[in-house]
Design goal:
167 residues, mainly alpha, 2 domains, 3-stranded antiparallel sheet, 8 helices, 64% helix, 7% strand, binds zinc ion, double-stranded DNA binding
Length: 167
């Protein structure tokens, strides 16, 4: 009697171990952001194919496959391009350095306004020398351009930067 109870308990454990009822969502948590779940199915985000989420080996084999590696590289490049494109349209610039520069200029304008410093002072040789020597990307444009470029979008651009997690 005791023996048969032990046996069934053991087989119960064994069934759990094969993870028959694992969900696609659980597999996503195991394998990270390269997979996603949609409608109870497991997808490879890079290849956009459905994977058998029950069998772990199917997933690991796929993630190691050459086709996946190739698609993953293309997918990552695409993500980077998309991100840069968004920044380009919202801030009208296309490199990280330019984004940083705009941010410096806008912060500089804001600082001048708040401190009551006339923007003309930005063209003072001492100010220029100090900024160029000590502040990264501090190529501050002439004060008439500062008014045009820097003023209207200070808050908007800052908000965009926050949204893009770019600060
Ligand atoms: Zn894949």
């Amino acid at each position: 009697m005791e023996k048969s109870v032990k046996k069934s308990a053991f087989s119960g454990r064994k069934r759990n171990k094969t993870a028959l009822y694992i969900t696609a969502q659980q597999r996503c948590e195991q394998f990270g952001p390269q997979l996603h779940e949609d409608g109870g199915k497991l997808f490879c985000s890079a290849c956009n194919v459905v994977l058998d989420h029950i069998r772990k080996s199917t997933i690991t084999d796929h993630l190691r496959s050459k086709t996946h590696m190739k698609r993953l590289a293309e997918f990552s490049e695409e993500c980077v391009r998309k991100k840069q494109k968004t920044l380009t349209t919202s801030l009208q610039c296309n490199t990280v350095a330019q984004v940083e520069k705009i941010s410096v200029v806008q912060d500089f304008v804001k600082m001048c306004l708040e401190a009551g410093i006339p923007l003309e002072k930005a063209n003072h040789p001492s100010v220029c020398t100090f900024l160029l020597a000590h502040v990264k990307n501090s190529d501050i444009p002439p004060s008439d351009q500062l008014r045009k470029v820097g003023l209207p979008d200070v808050h908007k651009a800052k908000q965009i930067c926050v949204n893009q997690k770019f600060v």
